[in-house]
Amino acid sequence: MLEMLDYPFMQRAFVAGLMIAVLASLSGSFIVLRRYSLLSETLAHVSLVGVAVGLLFGMSPLWMAVLASLVASWLIEYLRSVHGMYSDSVLAIFLSGSLALAIVIVSLAGSFNASLFSYLFGSILSVSTQDLWVMGIFGSMAMALLIAFFKELYFIAFDEDVARAGGIRVTLLNFMLVSVIAVIIALSIRVVGTLLIGALMVIPPVAAIRFGMGFYPTTLLSMAIALISVVIGLSASYLFSLPSGAAIVLCLLVIFIIALVINRR
Amino acid sequence: MPLKFSPSLFEVNNLNFERQGNLVLKNGTFKILPGEYCAIIGPNGGGKTTLVRLLLGLEKPTSGAITLFGTPQNRFRDWNRIGYVPQRSALVDGSFPATVREVVGMGRYAKRGIFGFESVEDKAAIAEAMELMGVSDLSNRLIGNLSGGQRQRVMIARALASNPDVLIVDEPNTGVDVESQHRFYELLRTLNRTKKLSILFITHDIGVIAEDITRVLFVNQTVLISQNPAEMIRCDEMSRLYGTPSHVVCHNH
Q1: Number of domains in chain B
Q2: What is the pLDDT of residues A51-96, one digit of tens each?
Q3: Domains of chain A
Q4: Per the CB < 8 Å rule, is A148 touching B114?
Q5: A151, B109: Cβ pair inside 8 Å?
Q6: Counts of helices then strands in chain A (DSSP H, E)
Q7: Alpha-carbon distance A28 to A181, whole Å?
């Protein structure tokens, strides 16, 4: 089984997958605790618009996905925090709106369905060395920001008003968090796919929370769950020729069910 | 010996606040001095919580000026000098992954800065606040697994961990049993007397505040101040202020 690591495409897929597992589970902890889980799903759909535009106009789908996801994340946060709109309503509008836009672009072009399929469900074959560099650079920046403001983001997730009253720059950090999540999602779609990246962000923290620990051990357990799922999922993808994203998400679901059974309350 | 100038903790001048065109507070003008034990009372919807949120910068006044520790609010940066325990803070999501130690530690976050690890001073302040509130033995328990009274003490420990000069507590007894309420008022008195901590708290439990408080702020769109709480908390005065017949029930706390 280990011979799969002899293939450069599998090496790239593992490096990318493990990076994404850490980033997605870490950032996912904050959105889960803030009842904002659908943000990941919504931004993933928005990324799809970027991918479609990139493919249509011959630009880098990855960069276009990053751009579309970032702009949408700022708009969502602006509507939520400045205009006081309900989070779930804003997310619903962006989720369905972006999917509609992506479908229209795809139907207008009509020639890149195969390429788009790999972005929808993830493909271990599609991760290039250049993608790895982009993921490495932007992933490191995202990770640095998450670690730098880890305690503040935790405080905001626990009690936004008290955090603000204590002098923490809540609005700025909220915009930073959604921006970081937008970048992580856009970077992840090569491996996990736009339709499935939400699961990698949400299921690990939700499963880890079931174990009833403090935030720091919960976050570490969440990362461990994501890493294990990526390793098993990518291996299954190689061995059984499955789409990598779907295989990873199924592993996550199995772990979630185990966590649920172990920690019945 | 020269007199040391001690500015007001809060100085409010002509404060007005409207929400979506509706007047919530008008012409609020008052001062809160260091060491005061001050109650904010008034009917529901009268603007008590809004007043506290305005003081904390969580709402922006429509007009008027707020000065904190002698500094205009828009230039004030020492927010950790104010400890805040909001309304219903004891009603925590039961599954939130936070231990008592982690929640109390949040009180030090604003002092730690980016990448800031917990210093010896942070650890000592957290331990002292937990000890003071009697929650040291709950350190590793999840906040969601505690009783309402225990959670309330944890939230106050969090506010005290930043070593504030003033503690603002909004309706502290929401969702808390009577026994815990008694202990809570004793605790506020102790903090004010022994730690010289200024306290500003919103309450509906008028009878319990009469003995100790130095000042009462009655908030019902306008802000009335009484230096003589015992006088203000008379049935006829309460009836006049609340606009409905009121009976003040005194109970031994």
Answers
A1: 1
A2: 888 888 888 888 899 999 999 999 999 998 888 888 889 999 999 9
A3: 2-259 (1.10.3470.10)
A4: yes
A5: yes
A6: 12, 0
A7: 8
